[in-house]
Amino acid sequence: xxxxxxxxxxxxxxxxxxxxxxxxxxxxxxxxxxxxxxxxxxxxxxxxxxxxxxxxxxxxxxxxxxxxxxxxxxxxxxxxxxxxxxxxxxxxxxxxxxxxxxxxxxxxxxxxxxxxxxxxxxxxxxxxxxxxxxxxxxxxxxxxxxxxxxxxxxxxxxxxxxxxxxxxxxxxxxxxxxxxxxxxxxxxxxxxxxxxxxxxxxxxxxxxxxxxxxxxxxxxxxxxxxxxxxxxxxxxxxxxxxxxxxxxxxxxxxxx
Length: 256
Prior knowledge:
Blueprint: E1 23-27, H1 31-36, H2 42-63, E2 67-74, H3 82-105, E3 109-113, H4 121-133, E4 141-148, H5 150-166, H6 177-181, E5 194-197, E6 216-219, H7 229-240
C-alpha cells in the first residue's frame, strides 16, 4: 500500500502498540449516495454497506482494536421512507441470522446500544440473541448503535438518576460525570479514541455525544460501501500522528 504520489505509507504500529486506538466509532454514511451515483436503488447501497461492515469488523480485530462502535440506525432514521426502513430492517435480520455464527466463532462480542422499548418484538429478540450468544467472547467488542441517538441516551441516563433521587436512594449532590456515565448504554466501555465518518460529511449527527468529548475525528470522502481495509488503516495511521493532550499541554510546552 502506498501513500499519495507513490511514497510508501508508514507501517502501522503492531497490534500490541499502545498507539493503536482501543476504541473506534464509525458513522457509516453514504450507502444511498453510492447507489444513486451508479443508477442503483438505495437498497443496493445498503447491501454493499453490509459487505464493508464485514471487512471492517474483521480487520479491526486483526489490527488489535478492542472496541468498535458502528452507527447502524439512528433514532432519527425512522423518518426515512417506509420502503427504505423495511429494507434496512430486513438487512439487520439477515446480518444477525447469517453473520452471528461467524462473529461468535471469531470471538467477537456483540453489544447493542440504543432504545429497545419501542422496537418491534422480532427486532428486539434478534438484538437480545446477538448479545446473549456472544456474551462470553473475549475478542473484539462490537457495539451496534441501533435506534440510537446520543441526546436520547443522555436523557435516558438522567431519568434513571432522577428516579433514584425520587426513591430516596441518591443524593442529588452526589451526581457527577462518573455517576452519569454509569447510566449510559456504554457503561463500563472506554470512550472512543477515534471516530471515523465516511462520505465527506463533517459532523457528529447525534452519535456518542457524551463519549466523544476527547475523541479524534477523521472524515473521509469515500462512501461507506467503498470503505476497505486500506481505508481503516489510513484512518488509524492519521490517528497515531495526532497529539492528544486531553486539555493539557504537549510535552515541552509551558503555559502562558
